[in-house]
Amino acid sequence: MQKHPKTRRARSGGAPAAPAGPNVVVGGGGAVPTDKSLAFLSRLATEFTAVLSLPDLLEHIMRVLREETGFDSCTLALIDERSPEVLIIKAASGLREGFRGLAVPKDQGLHGVVMRTGEPLFIPDMQADPRVYRRDNRIRSGIYVPLSVRRRQIGVLSAHRERAGAFARADLDVLTVVGRYLTGAVEVARLHDQLKDLAATDSLTGLANRRCFFERFTVEIARSRRKDRPVTVVLLDLNGFKAVNDAHGHAKGDEVLIWVGEAITKAIRSYDLAARFGGDEFILMLPETTKEQAATVLNRLHHLRVPVPDPRGVVADLSFSWGVAVFPVDGDDPERLLQVADHRLYSMKERFYDGETPA
Hints:
Blueprint: E1 8-9, E2 24-27, E3 30-33, H1 35-50, H2 54-69, E4 73-79, E5 86-94, E6 103-105, H3 109-117, E7 121-123, E8 141-149, E9 152-161, H4 169-200, H5 210-227, E10 231-238, H6 241-248, H7 250-267, E11 273-278, E12 281-287, H8 291-302, E13 306-309, E14 315-318, E15 320-327, H9 334-353
Antiparallel strand pairs: 1-7, 2-3, 4-5, 4-9, 5-6, 7-8, 8-9, 10-12, 10-15, 11-12, 13-14
Helix pairs in contact: 1-2, 1-4, 2-4, 6-7
């Protein structure tokens, strides 16, 4: 029976016997970059600061890594935040460029070994190793290093060559150093994306906030003007919300606002925009929508009742008042359209408190 070549696992002090090479000094504390390696990392640092978009940044780094090292292929797999049991190939350069977007089970294949052990791997002959998850006849040898943040594995950085046994310890050390920098870059970029989301999101409801709405609305008005298409804005207000806060406290009021945000999101289309405008006011942007077409959404909201128990345990309902304005019929700029919508909202609320039921 033919045995497959043993995978050489690179532990501290137990790496395979291979020359360290001129670019890296191997010491007791791990890989220490020297002149050529430092020049490479300097170029990487430039890439990190020049690109803030995480996908673009990762692609840049894979390209630079391949160009500077002469690897035939470089890939980066990160845990999918929506499906933590899966790794996604987020960036790839060279022979494995077509693998970008591929989902790899976190517990299978060579990626699975690295994720499970948290240690790098040498694979002298990938064609002979049965654990390879997806075989590529163009690739013969590979090295894999883990990416970890505070002892938590977040992904795997790998490099490949067309020849068997083509990697030396120096290659693994370079990849390990790059992996450390890459981990920091991924975390910074993700933090940047999270901060952007926070800046655009209402912290209570998860809807867009007022600032984000105005930015998107201004862009949509400009687009609609160029294409001569309508766009509708709707201001929404909860009738009787103050009484909920007075009777049940602000914690219950917050629960109601969260429920309302979710209900509004379900009532609109995926390309519409809902935002919390402030307090118990919400605002909708409905692109490519006339006043008559907006009536469909408003009809759903009109029949939506927000259940709120009163102090006696009896469930009361909250309803909406609204004001609608349509570009370009009611105005040619965001400020004018919001003025019109606000005026119509105020008129409807007056009718509500006068005892009239919205049609």
